Amino acid sequence: MEDPIGHPQQRILCVEDDQDTAELIAEELTDQGFQVEVARDGFHALSSLLRQRPDLVLCDVTMPGMDGFELLQQINALAPRFIDLPFIFLTALGQRTAELKGRQMGADDYLTKPVDFEILLSIIRTRLARLQGQRAQAPSVELSEREIEALTWSARGKTSSEIAIILGLSKRTIDFHIDNARTKLGVATRIEAVVKAAASGIIHQYKG
User: How many DSSP H helices and E strands does the chain contain?
Assistant: First the structure.
């Protein structure tokens, strides 16, 4: 979907179990030119994510079924596909321990209700602009999804044997993908490949 002047609309997934709050957030963000999809819990949000990647996730913490922390944990486990996805917690919880937990898991921001839309919009725009800048600076080297996955798990300290188990492949296949990535990146070792890929924005160091 595009805005009135032909630019693709940025898509925000709002995960909120309170219908009134969800409708208010969706209305405000839509008025600001965003495309908004609402999910009422973590399960529906994960399904939406897998169907179509949003540009940013705005997520409540306390929800029935899968809560916000569990959703973020699931997203982290899907690396590298969602490793750079901006994730903002929006919750009535004001306890410092809850905020620290969210940030330690990789959340980019943590806002409490009631919603201050000026602050929320500022944070959303800053996060999206930063992500666009990172993508614009990405090098011309193109790695396959498997090569990116192998390097991402290597960046987490996993061996080829461990990565093979995680991805359901053989160790030989993992080594093959890493060697291909190393060759494309023009480096001699796996460590150099991980460092160069991370520095170039091809992969991102695990956040939590």
Answer: 9, 5
Q: Among the CATH numbers 3.30.565.10, 1.10.3470.10, 3.30.470.20, 3.40.50.2300, which is that of 11-136?
A: 3.40.50.2300
Nearest to 43 by CA among 19, 18, 64: 64
What's the DSSP call for residue 36?
E
Confirm if 13 and 56 have CB atoms less than 8 A apart: yes
User: Strand, coil or helix: what is 99?
Assistant: helix
Please give the order of strands across the beta sheet that includes 35-39.
35-39, 11-15, 56-59, 87-91, 109-112
Enclosing H/E stretch for 12: strand 11-15
Residue range 2-9: average pLDDT?
A: 51
145-201 confidence digits (pLDDT tens):
899 999 999 988 899 999 999 999 999 999 999 999 999 988 899 988 888 887 777
pLDDT band of residue 115 (cuts 50, 70, 90) is confident
Q: Which of 50, 59, 47, 51 is nearest to 13 (CA)?
A: 59
